[in-house]
Amino acid sequence: MTSIQTKGIALITGASTGIGAIYADRLAKRGHDLILVARNKDRLASLARRIAGDTGRKVETVEADLTVAADLRRVGDILRTNAGISMLVNNAGVGATGPLVSSDVDKMDDMISLNVTALTRLTYAAAPGFVARGHGTIINISSIVAIAPEVLNGVYGGTKAFVLAFNHSLVHELADKGVRVQAVLPGATATEFWDVAGMPVHHLPQQMVMSANDLVDAALAGLDLGETVTIPSLPNQAEWDRYEAARRAMSDKISSAIPAPRYNLRNHERISA
Ligand code: NAP
User: Fold this and answer.
1) Does ligand 1 have an atom closer than 6 angstroms to the CB of 140?
2) String of DSSP letters for 121-152
């Protein structure tokens, strides 16, 4: 394979290990050149060497801490100026497992910076070019805690709910402009995420834990199917479809000049008038 017939460059954040490193491998095998972003320069370099050797694709690395404004701006500039980029995988993220009362609020703030602010800024950097060129793909790695925020740390759940809501709005705005948008909601996946979040993955029931290989292969199969939200572990897609249908049906009824009858405001006003 040569770099000449590229499917465009995929820029992947958090590509030094875990889910992002598997995306790098799979997207190179699908014919993408790569720009791999993370903090750990040595890990990035050895992954880039391995993938370039295996696939013949061009693989660049960018050492960046996406919670640092200057680094984030630098990666944003690459997305804004490199018209060869056809895919953004917003994957870098950290989690936490502790409850609110025992969590350090500064760490929560750092998590919001990476999971929400960086993802948002990089999407803003990439999307106008994709729209102008009439094609592009944005993959946003959310989590099942987006719809089950009681499971882990609440701020982590909140950040991933943001990613899902943002993804819905991106689909709404960009789908008819040739831009594919997909949110991926992994369940527990065997990566270093769990060590960083403070709970070793081997403490979880192993029947709940997917390999990063299977997770990414299922997520890419979901992308090929045209899914805008992919939950790799959910056996029955109809369950998600019903959940979404209920949300959309309710969204027609949740703004009104008249308070809901169950609050009895009309009666109350009459009595106190
Ligand atoms: P991981 O193995 O810990 O990998 C996280 C990646 O993000 C690494 O490449 C890390 O590289 C990078 N990263 C962390 N902080 C960064 C920063 N400040 N700036 C730039 N890069 C940074 O975790 P993972 O499981 O692959 O997680 C990937 C995504 O999946 C995350 O968004 C996570 O929330 C989501 N997810 C994971 C699970 C799970 O069970 N594993 C479940 C649901 C969702 P460096 O350390 O080199 O910077």
Assistant:
1) no
2) HHHHHHHHHHHHHT-EEEEEE--GGGT-TTSS
Whose Cα sits closest to atom 2 in ligand 1?
Answer: 18
Q: What is the CATH number of the domain that holds 82?
A: 3.40.50.720
* Residue 191 belongs to domain spanning: 9-272
Instruction: Provide the annotated active-site residues.
Output: 156
Closest atom of ligand 1 relative to the 160 alpha carbon: 34
Span 173-230, pLDDT tens digits: 999 999 999 999 999 999 999 999 988 999 999 999 999 999 999 999 999 999 999 9
Domain presence at residue 229: yes
In a domain, 2, yes or no: no
Torsion angle of C-alpha atoms 214, 219, 224, 229, degrees rounded to 10: 150
* Model pTM score: 0.96
Q: How many domains in the chain?
A: 1
